[in-house]
Amino acid sequence: MNPPNERIDTKHAQYLAVLRKEQRIIRLWQTVLLVAFFAVWEAASRFHWVDPLLFSSPSAIAKLFVEKMSDHSLFAHTWATLLETLLGFFIGTAGGALIGALLWWFPRLAKTLDPYLVIFNAMPKVALGPILIVALGPGFTSIIAMGVVISIIITTIVVYSAFKEVDPNYLKVLRTFGATRYQCFKEAVLPASFPAIISTLKVNVGLAWVGVITGEFLVSKQGLGYLIIYGFQVFNFTLVLMSLLIVALLSTVMYQLVALIEKKWGNRR
Amino acid sequence: MFLVVDRLSHTYLTKTTAVTALDDVSLSVEKGEFVSFLGPSGCGKTTLLSIIAGLIEPTEGAVHIEGQPLWPSGTAAPVARRAVGYMLQQDYLFPWKTIEENILLGLKITNTLTADTKERALALLAEIGLAGVESYYPRQLSGGMRQRAALVRTLATDPKLLLLDEPFSALDQQTKLRLEELVWNTLRQYEKTAVLVTHDIEEAIAMSDRIFLFSPRPGRLVRTFVIPDELRCRPPLAARQHPSFPALFQSIWKEMEALESAQ
Ligand SMILES: Nc1ncnc2c1ncn2[C@@H]1O[C@H](COP(=O)(O)OP(=O)(O)OP(=O)(O)O)[C@@H](O)[C@H]1O
Ligand SMILES: [Mg+2]
Known about the structure:
By secondary structure, chain A is mainly α. Chain A contains 12 helices and no strands. Chain A folds into 2 domains: 48 residues; 208 residues, MetI-like fold. Chain B is an alpha/beta fold. In chain B, strands 6-7-8-3-9-10 form a 6-stranded mixed beta sheet, with helices on both faces. A 4-stranded antiparallel beta sheet of chain B has the order 2-1-4-5. In chain B, a hairpin with a 2-residue loop joins β4 and β5. In chain B, α5 packs antiparallel against α6 and α8 crosses α11. The radius of gyration of chain B is 18 Å and the shape is globular. The relative contact order of chain B is 0.17. At the A-B interface, α8 and α9 of A face α2, β6 and α4 of B. Chain A: It comes from Geobacillus proteiniphilus.
């Protein structure tokens, strides 16, 4: 290795070290913020700066968590909500992408359905809740349906407009080889829209949780949404806040998984 | 005659206007010939290429390739269309595919991807000076390299007729001259018939056997220049340095100026 290269290598190593240091500082502050938040919360509750009945405290929540874990009830509630959310998320996303593809395939269908999509998208979907419960029964199915309804239309719209915006010159290249419509879709339209599809995944993680928690509010049988509404009714805010923390944790994990998918397949351009 | 364009007219219809892009264009190209379509922006060059490639159906007239009509889309049409390779104004390599996947795209689409054709395409890639970039993505290549890869993609399906739509216009001068040389040699070697669209007079003279000059609005064929033998048989760089090059440039330049003032 000759001297100039060595110099560049050490410069690069220094640069990386600076980056790593910056990263460590950020991580440190993030941890400090988290610990401080819980510490202040605990103190505020202990010394009655806030009403402990309304705002509970981290220690009370931890105690309740251990209690609920030992009688296995919490696990069942969490599992029910998670399953509903995952199903709502997958069905909503896949369904929306599928409808988006159909609209691309049949332009006349797209033009016909356009105003209805606008209406559906503008409507607050949670307002459909009572109707879903009447139609599908007060249970698992209608809660999943809430998760689906809330995410499917926006997915359809985003995916369809991504399909439409694909540079027509890519299609021109394919058509010079005599490609069929299916080949055009598979080789250009779908891969070119991949970033847009990933970004709807991210949005849908949030939407599926909104739909499912709202569904559980309405059905009131099982799940973290049920625990929240139940805790509210019996004035047990420790239960409400514990459920909320679990929801926050799970949705973050789900979001991070999607981000991982994006990192792996999303940035090949 | 290899390619015959017969009294071709094309009008683009939109909601608000009808734009006549081509008006009564007739020409023919012999097998193995290299011709250029020269003309200012908007004179219908891309439209004409798209029609010859079978991508749009003309309002009037016909195109025959080796005696087979391209339109109406009858039984003979697909065969005639498959004989055509089209290179767009930009490379349009697919950014989510590797270079290898990109150059094999045509073979895949036409269902002719075999070990044999694949090997040929990869050999062509190496021949054109791009050995070793098979697993790269297009963004990792320079503009000139990408345009070369696009040429390989077009040649991989072994088309009999090559349509080149200003393939060098987005490149810097040096890369452009090198690529002209490369394309000229490659097409000679494989005895391809080619149509080059350009608005660069020098490029048209250096590359082609004949030049068709078009006028804009509506696109009409106004003159055909036959390039003298001493320029034709020389590769582009050598042709540019030949003593008879400036005179020909002058006469085409004058013709284009006259067109402009007639507008
Ligand atoms: N899809 C289209 N719809 C309507 N008009 C079009 C369309 N494509 C081209 N035109 C019009 O037809 C005329 C010829 O266009 P064309 O693209 O064939 O010109 P060109 O010679 O290739 O120009 P350039 O040198 O800029 O590429 C122009 O007036 C253009 O506005
Ligand atoms: Mg053009």
